[in-house]
Amino acid sequence: MASRETAFVEITPEVLLKAYACGIFPMAESADDPALYWIEPERRGIIPLEHFHVPSRLARTVRADPYTIRVDHDFDAVIGACAEPRPGRARTWINERIRILYCKLYERGHCHSVETYYGNKLVGGLYGVSLGRAFFGESMFHRSRDASKVALVHLVARLKAGGFRLLDTQFVTDHLRSFGAVEVTRRQYHKLLEAALVGEGKFDALAPDVAISGVEALRYVNGG
């Protein structure tokens, strides 16, 4: 289901959070289109945190720590990188209104980024919305091999350490399926969402300003 609201109707961060609590999220047709669509898929993508799978080759990469992971260090750069055209995707759904809205959510502590650096260069990352004990993954990017995948592993480590119950991926791709992503019906999703909105996850259970090693991240991922 998708409904288009006009370019002239203001959406506040508070309205956006209420939409997420109802299972709805916004997208734009393109970066140049100022209007937004409200999306509520018939089938929703999630990664069950208890069944998150790290492929063996990626696990070796994570343990080797080729990248430095930072959290909420440069949110604007991450959403900007996610909005860039990519090979096979000339257009992006992240327009200026989306960027402004999510930056406001970030300022309120409801949006977070996990960033991958090679030296001082940002080479990958992801961002998403935190509400209750649910995390809604929005977008990810990479400029170096496995950079976004490593960020995802560190995200899941943080979510599990912080008592989160739901990782929403919106849709399922082959890439996400390799980590254990599955589709659930809208009805199933709403039950999972309702349960995840009870209580408060602690995204900062692992201090954002202290980088953890890949070995530590995998330990949290595996429930250690």
C-alpha Rg, in Å?
Answer: 17 Å
Helix fraction bin? 25-40%
Structural class: alpha+beta
Order of strands in the sheet with the most strands? 5-6-7-8-9-4-10
Tertiary shape: globular
Mean pLDDT: 91
Largest sheet: 7 strands, mixed
What does the secondary structure layout of this molecule look like, with pairings?
Layout: E1 2-5, H1 13-21, E2 25-27, E3 36-39, E4 43-46, H2 56-64, E5 68-71, H3 75-82, H4 96-107, E6 111-118, E7 121-131, E8 134-142, H5 147-161, E9 166-170, H6 174-177, E10 182-185, H7 186-196, H8 214-221
Parallel strand pairs: 8-9
Antiparallel strand pairs: 1-3, 2-3, 4-9, 4-10, 5-6, 6-7, 7-8
Plain-language structure description:
With 224 residues, the chain is an alpha+beta fold. The chain is built from eight helices and ten strands. The strands form two sheets. A seven-stranded mixed β-sheet has the order 5-6-7-8-9-4-10, with helices on both faces. The protein is globular and about 45 Å long. The termini are far apart. Residues 1-8 have low confidence and may be disordered.
Structure at a glance:
This protein has 224 residues and is an alpha+beta fold. It has 8 helices and 10 strands.
Relevant terms:
10 strands; alpha+beta; 7-stranded mixed sheet; 3-stranded antiparallel sheet; 25% strand; disordered N terminus; 224 residues
